[in-house]
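This is your field. Please look over both lines of this record.
***
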Amino acid sequence: MPADSSREPTTYYPSRPAPDRHGGPAYRAVGSVTDRSEVGCEIGIDAVRGAMACQDLIVDSYRRADAGNRQAMAELIEQDGSLAVDDAIVTGREAIREMLAARDADPDRRTMHVVANLIFDRLAEDRMKVRYVLIVFLLSSSGSPAFVPNSLASVLDTLARRADRWWLANRTITTAPGGR
């Protein structure tokens, strides 16, 4: 237990409101949108909603790629957003769309992206950083064994909320040695 023993216990009691991070009464939910020193502690419902919206955006971006429409991923990125893959950085939604369209030019390239181990860091009410592992399977390479990962990467996404919608502001993908 933290040094501050006056803290509310982390057990969820649906019939009893507990103070949220801002001191107001709120029902708390278990999650990982913490400052890392509070892993396993309960968080407010607004943080959970933000984390779920960000997770949906992240997963949807890869779903679009797997459907063969990588350039549609650009629709989820802020106008001045950036995408960095190792040392290559592309800035601006349209430039990112063009870069992704080049990947779509190969109709035989089919992929399956698996997102794992998401860690949410809420920077502000309207800003979230999400770190995760990305495993990419290349499904269409002739001669490559089925279901063997083609690439393993660590990803850092920064997301921003504008009005009631979250946008991808920056994505930085760092592939593990030997990945493509």
The two ends are 44 Å apart (CA to CA). The first helix runs from residue 45 to 66.
